Amino acid sequence: MSLTKVKSNPYNWRGVIGYALYDWACSPVPTLHATFIFAVYFTTQIAPENGTSYWGYMTALASLSVAIIAPFLGGLADAKSIRKLMLIIFTLIGGFSTLYLWNILPDSSFLIQALVISFISIFAMELTFVFYNSLLSSVAKPDQMGFVSGISWGFGYFGAIICLVIALFVFIQAKEPPFGLSWENSGHVRATMVLAALWLFIFSVPAFLFINEQKTQKDEIRPLERLKEGFQIIIKIPGLLRFMIARMLYTDGLTVVFAFAGIYAAKVFSFSQERVIMFAIAVNLFCGIGAIVGGFIEDRIGAFRTVRLSLFSLFFLGTGILLSPTELWFWVFGLLVGIFIGPVQSSSRSLVASLAPKEHRAQIFGFYMFAGKSTSFIGPAIYGWLVMVTGIERAGMLIVLIFFISGIILLGSKGPQRINESQNFY
Questions:
Q1: CA distance 210 to 201
Q2: How much is the pTM?
Q3: 12-211+221-411 fold
Q4: In this predicted model, what pLDDT tens digit does every residue of 390-406 receive, in sequence order?
């Protein structure tokens, strides 16, 4: 980016900092809960029999629920210009449900309760991103979105790292359980859910204070009409519908990775809870670096090319993970995969943010979430079914590669094209 461009388009640093800190705040929740700590705790201590399958079905249901409701809530947020308010509401729901997981003891009698509360947490935290993503254009101009989106994803990964380090050294590996906790009822593990929730509450505050939402003139709420209206807008932006469908596929693959990475490491390579967290810290470090570097690369080669490059890399490195004969190779390929996860997520978001008309950004991001979640229940469900039928954990991970290559094929070689925002969409 040239110095002239920076001077003519100065950054809204208060907004950028608030935006990045929200990612810092919320990323530890799915990282500690849905991927690396509580998910492993559930499958090893609450439901050692078929726990992977139960977790997969619950994750699938949460994804399907998000897909159904996200476009409607996005339309509502646009109609009333309440994107930030909706972000606050679902942040509180996600935080308090995560906090409640402290009450889930290591006993099979807590199986249903664990699944229900985990569903609420995952559902709410996923929906926050409908409104969070739509606020990107409120803090960044079009030529700044790659940098702001990338650095925000990077903040998210680094926030997860710091929270994982605290969880590992203060709770999991402590010589004596802190704060009067007990080893016997896994208090040191359950306490990490309290840590994640408090982290979310504290560090999300700057976003609510510093982000100034762009107001729109829309004020009528007609859910079905706005759903149809949003779809018509997507169709009229050249290439956007194809991109949304491709994203639906490759995001399905990422959903499986996020849901089962910790479980896979524990089941296939016998990782202890401590080693799972160490692996999570290392992977998040590489993800954060990849997201930030990817943001700079995106501003030079474009969001679409960044997504394609990252997807090809994820497919080949993911194949390495599936075929890894030893723990060492699993570490190598796992860390390299981390480098390209961030750019895929960040560049996908900034691409859509740069294309969406101002009055329809939350609505378009509702469809964006729909494209990311409408079929994502399939991946976890197939993963759980394959593991249950074959008894082999690696069999489930094969579905990730299928989703990645399908996304690459559908994505094609030409990205969506921006059109004049003054064009009549109706």
A1: 15
A2: 0.76
A3: Growth Hormone; Chain: A; (1.20.1250)
A4: 888 888 888 889 999 99
